Amino acid sequence: MKKAVRIAVMGAGLIGKAHIERVAREPEAELIAIIDPAPFAKTMAEEMNVPWYPGYDDFIRADRPDLMIVATPNQRHFEDGMRLVKDGIPMLMEKPVCDTVERGHELVSAAERAGVTICVGHHRRHSPLVRMAREVVESGQLGKISSVAGLCWFLKPDYYYDVQWRREIGAGPILLNLIHVIDDLRNLCGNVVSVQALQSNATRGFEVEDSAAILLRFENGALGTISISDAVNGPWSWELTAGENKAYPQTSEFCYLVGGTKGSLTVPRLDVWRHTKDDGWWCPIKQERVVAPEEDPLVWQIRNLIDVVRGEAKPVIDGREGLRTLETTMAVKRAAETGETVTVVN
Q: For the segment 194-220, what is each residue's pLDDT rounded down to a tens digit?
């Protein structure tokens, strides 16, 4: 048997806890530490019989992991990541790779110079639903991709906004939720080269936006649209359509459409639609369902990390690719604020 990969997790909040649980269950991984100053993190470590440390400095004086999972708040990603680069420790950095594009460039460039691997926690890239959708697109059976559409409509309850910072600029769906959609569409259809956007706070009247409409131009010439809102009572979001996170109710709807000259694809339902002849819309159209296994993408992410540490695989999404998703998301925010078309440098 191969030696287990020794993994420490820094940050024991919602996503950190999800990583901790999966690392602990993975036969080829060993959870060697939970690093978080919060009392609940110490309790969690005690219950799991795992060493607990209040901070990175306390931990690194006592031990050294094969890999660090960083699930700290976004504004700490740069500082935490640079410490790991300095110490030569590979990492999974939760998305976004940094809280600003400038810091992201500095971190990713420093890691590349030092030869330190950064994997980025866009876990949907490990989803069987997304992997199968990408296979359909790359197979050519949709033809040349011409149009892409994304819906991200969900309802945050009123009490969510009892916390002051959630009503302020920077806490809306563009910066908190859109990055997932951007990464999904980039993964399926390629790099985005320019964006336009509008945002509105008309529904709730808070300082922060509650809705946005976005236009994307892809490098391959395709055009895309995204409509995102956290004030819609409806089923069209990844969480409610994919069924991967059991905390959400599952529907039979889809949230993305990828359209080409030979066919179209719904995601995550994975229905492929094609006319039966080349005469276009006059011809009968048929539907075929692609079946993907029901698997936990976070588990597959851990397994990819293990293979990366062992030198047996490349990251499914590395720091440079995660940075491109962050750049595209921030370009949307600039476009919404200025009303201008914003170019994305890839």
A: 999 999 999 999 989 999 999 999 999
Residues of the chain whose pLDDT is less than 70? 1
User: Superfamily for 5-116?
Assistant: NAD(P)-binding Rossmann-like Domain (3.40.50.720)
Q: Which of 267, 287, 264, 283 shows the shortest CA–CA distance to 275? A: 283
| Selection from 216, 215, 214, 212 nearest residue 189 by Cα | 216
DSSP, collapsed to helix, strand or coil, labels residue 136 as helix
Q: State the Cα–Cα distance between residues 30 and 22, nearest whole angstrom.
A: 10
Strands 145-153 and 223-229 come out as parallel
The residues that bridge with 118 in the sheet, in sequence order, are 91
CA separation, residue 109 to residues 103, 212, 315 (Å): 10, 32, 16
Percent of the chain with pLDDT over 70: 100
The residues, ordered by sequence, that sit 6+ positions from 108 with a Cβ below 8 Å of its Cβ are: 97, 118, 319, 320, 322, 323
Return the beta strands (E) in the chain as ranges. Answer: 5-10, 29-35, 52-53, 67-70, 91-93, 118-120, 145-153, 192-200, 211-218, 223-229, 256-260, 264-267, 271-275, 285-289, 342-343
In the chain, domain spans: 5-116, 126-292+327-343
pLDDT value, residue 167: 85
Question: Bridge-partner residues for 285, per DSSP?
Answer: 275
**Cis geometry, peptide bond prior to residue 249 (ω within 30 degrees of 0):** no
CA dist list (Å): 294 to 128, 129, 300: 7, 8, 12
Q: Note whether 10 and 36 are within 8 A (CB).
A: yes
| Architecture of the 126-292+327-343 domain | 2-Layer Sandwich (3.30)
Return the pLDDT at 148: 98
320 sits in the region (left: phi over 0; alpha: psi -120 to 50; else beta) called alpha
Q: Tell me: the pLDDT tens digits for 33-44?
A: 999 999 999 999
